[in-house]
Amino acid sequence: MTRFIAVVSGKGGVGKTTVAINLGVCLSNAGNDAVVLDGNLTAPNVGIYLGFPNPPASFHEVIKGDEPIENATYMHSSGLKVIPGSIRFDVFDDVNLSRIEKSFNKLKGYSETVIIDTGAGLTSENKAVMNMADEVMIVTTPEFAAVTEALRTIKNAEKQNKLVLGIVLNKVHSIRNEISVENVKTMLGFPIMGMIPRSEMIKKAQIMKHPVVYSDPQSEVALEFSRIAERLK
Ligand SMILES: Nc1ncnc2c1ncn2[C@@H]1O[C@H](COP(=O)(O)OP(=O)(O)OP(=O)(O)O)[C@@H](O)[C@H]1O
Ligand SMILES: [Mg+2]
After folding, report:
1. Crossing angle for the helix pair 16-29 and 220-231, nearest 10 degrees?
2. What is the CA(203)–ligand 1 centre distance, in A?
3. Along the chain (233 residues), what's the average pLDDT of each consecutive run of 10 residues?
C-alpha cells in the first residue's frame, strides 16, 4: 500500500519544499521506495531545488493526461525519485482540478511512500491536493503569523479527516524566536516532530541543487531531518 504524506503550511516560505526533499532522501536512504511529488501546482519548486528546473514531462502533464507518471519521474543523484511540476507560465491555466484525484490514483502502488510538497494556504488547488493525502505534516516557523496560519491549515486537515502527524518547526533560532517552542505546541495542539535550526547549510545545499542530508549528512540540520524521518516509521 502506498502511503501519502502531505507537507503543508499556512504561510508561504516556511520550508515545506526543504522539508519534503530532505525527508524524501532520508526515507530513500533507509531503503524506503519514496518519491517526492510537487503538489504545489501554482509555484512548483521541487524541480528547481533538485536540478530539474524545466523537465520535459512534469506532474502538470500527468494531471492533464498528456504523459504517464513514469515519464514525469526523475532520479536525483542522491537516489531520490522526484515528480516535479512545470515552471511554464501557461501550464496552470489548463489544469483541471477534477483530474487531480485521477492522477493521484495512478500513484497508488507506484511507490511505497509519496511525500507531497504543497503550496501555502488554503487555495482550492491546495485543498484538492491535500485531500489526496492520508497524513499531513505541518511546517511552521516560530513566528506568530506562521503559527496562526498553521492552525487554520490544521483545522482544514481535520475537516478532511487527515491524520495530523505533528509539527516541524523550521528556521529555529537559538535565542531569538518570536514564539517559544512550548507556546507553538500549546497553540497548535500537536507534538513537535522536530526542530530545524535556521542554517546557512540549507542555503548552501540549495545552491548545489542537493538536499542538505545528501550534501552534508553529518551536519546538525541533516541529523535532525534523519530523526524526523525515523518518526515517520
Ligand atoms: N532551516 C532553514 N535555514 C535557513 N534557510 C532555510 C531553512 N529552511 C528553508 N530555508 C530557506 O527558506 C526559503 C524558503 O524555503 P522553502 O522553499 O522550502 O519554503 P516553502 O514553504 O516550500 O515555500 P513556498 O510556500 O513558497 O512553497 C528557501 O530559500 C530555503 O532555502
Ligand atoms: Mg515550496
Report:
1. 70
2. 9
3. 97 98 98 97 96 95 94 98 91 80 95 98 94 98 97 97 98 88 95 96 97 97 98 92
